[in-house]
Amino acid sequence: MTDSPSLSIRHKRLIGILALLLVLAGIWYLLARNPASVPPPQRSAWNQPTPVRVVQVERGSLDVQLKSIGTVTPLNTVTVRSRVDGELTRVLFTEGAEVERGTLLAEIDPSPYRAQLAQAEGLAQQNQAQLANAQADLELYEGLFEQDSIARQQLTSQRALVEELRGTLKANAAQVEDARLQLSWTHIEAPIAGKLGLRRVDAGNLVSSGDTEGLVSITQMRPIAVEFTVPEPDVPALRRAAASGEELAVQVLDRSEQQTLANGRLHTLDNQIDIATGTLRVKALFENEDDDLFPNQFVNVRLRLHTLPSVVTIPADAVQFGSRGTYVYVVKPEESKAYSRLVKLGASADGRVAVTDGLAEQELVVLEGLDRLRDGREVVISDEDAG
């Protein structure tokens, strides 16, 4: 009779376990009948579809360009110096102003040069009178010689005197012209049209023709040149384009290559390649009507060699470089997946590059979101591209 309580407890435990098993079996049965109620396993961030922005492969024209860094160079720069010595009495220009050729810039005290001119003119007048007198005597001697009244030697001497005075008079005329020229140089004029620099000498100073700094500098601003270099491998194509007779367009941009400063044309090529740098110097001309180009300014240069009329192009930012070669990611919309594809590239310009092999027109290539892509990865195209 003593075992009956323990048996009762075991029976109760057994009944409880059977009841729990029945409950678990019922739950399993319900879940098996309704699998949608089971939450799906969570995907890792790496396995999530990658958001990307795509662009369509296009066909169109593409300019074949050479890119370089150039320096704005004036066609002419002149340091205005005095050609005579003396006191600088007046400075008539404004620093930084635009001047035309022949504009009066400054004056030097003309008094000494007026005196020299007067002296030369007086000496010439004196010799002119002596020549007139000698010519009159020669005419008289010729008449007397015909009458056999004077010796031939006297006539010959008079003729020599007349020729001597004529030569002296020519020298006097040259002296007068030189004195007049010296006097004109006291008025200092602009030898070229251009922009004035800063004044280097003030009025009241003594100036000399030997002064190296001069009074002011003038820089021609219109037209203006840009000098740049082309690598030796690109020289044959440049020479062929220049020899075609077609005017080659040149565009210059600021340092950031965001703003176009001016459009011009190729002017000339240097006659030899620099062996130290392996480049050829090239010069382009620009009208510079708006003064956007300034001497010694550094600019980015784009020289158009020719235009490819119909080529397949994509943005250059879509191109990737790997151990297999050059490739892009192509999206297949029906699969929503991106696949890498090797491509062959041609010329590039203005942020686009020609694809000679590997892509067809209207295919979609990935432009943004490339950092998380791998071959066959699921992608989500942005709404902007989808629209």
TrEMBL record:
GO molecular function: efflux transmembrane transporter activity
InterPro entries: MdtA-like_b-barrel (IPR058626), MdtA-like_BSH (IPR058625), MdtA-like_HH (IPR058624), RND_pump_MFP (IPR006143), YknX-like_C (IPR058637)
Membrane topology classification: Lipid-anchor
Domain Multidrug resistance protein MdtA-like beta-barrel: 223-305
Residues of the YknX-like C-terminal permuted SH3-like domain: 311-380
Keywords, comma-separated and alphabetical: Cell inner membrane, Cell membrane, Coiled coil, Membrane
Identification of the protein by name: Membrane fusion protein, multidrug efflux system
Main location class: membrane
Coiled-coil residue windows: 117-144
Localization (cell): Cell inner membrane; Membrane
Domain of life: Bacteria
Ranges where the Multidrug resistance protein MdtA-like alpha-helical hairpin domain occurs: 116-186
Record-linked Gene3D superfamilies: 2.40.30.170, 2.40.420.20, 2.40.50.100, Helix hairpin bin
One Gene Ontology cellular component annotation held by this UniProt entry: efflux pump complex
Lineage: Bacteria, Pseudomonadati, Pseudomonadota, Gammaproteobacteria, Pseudomonadales
Family assignment from sequence similarity: Belongs to the membrane fusion protein (MFP) (TC 8.A.1) family.
SUPFAM superfamilies per record: HlyD-like secretion proteins
Entries under NCBIfam families matching the protein: RND_mfp
Occurrences of domain Multidrug resistance protein MdtA-like barrel-sandwich hybrid (ranges): 76-218
